[in-house]
Amino acid sequence: xxxxxxxxxxxxxxxxxxxxRTVQWTKQNxxxxxxxxxxxxxxxxxELPDGRHLDHFLIxxxxxxxxxxxxxANEVLLLWRHRFITDSWGWELAAGVVxxxxxxxxxxxxxxxxxxxxxxxxxxxxxxxxxxNGLTDARHHIYWTDEAEYVGHPVDDFxxxxxxxxxxxVVPDLVAxxxxxxxxxxxxxxxxxxxxx
Length: 197
Prior knowledge:
By secondary structure, the protein is α+β, with helices and mostly antiparallel strands. It is built from three helices and twelve strands, in the order βββββββαβββββαα.
């Protein structure tokens, strides 16, 4: 076994569970350049720690709520769908934007029923993530349940090619093969795998 030399420089700090707050970009102002009911594209004047300024575009988005069901056989309810923006296919959880004034967990339950036909029982918060926080303020809130009732064909069946119960034990392989391309959903499925398997 090869031993690594001790650090002789302070460029790399040791891990700290509290994190650090010594290098911070500061937004001086922000102006909307385009907006619609889904998002806005803004331009911010950002001051760097050394005093320089830069123009930084950002996208402001509504929060997203996602949910899935894990059944008694440790299978997870997923959607197989195409994303035209990246021209890619992959497994996803039912998800959508949270409407103004809507409770996030309620939005997750609504999306699950609309996109899969399964009405969830009590939802458990799994995680909240910022999938691209260098460009957007989007936050994805992900829930799961082990209780659900099939209420009929999904209203929003156009959202996916098919809906399937996928064994949780195969999730790491699906992620490794790139079959769960959405980062937040991959993280959520790996966490569910960790909790249930």
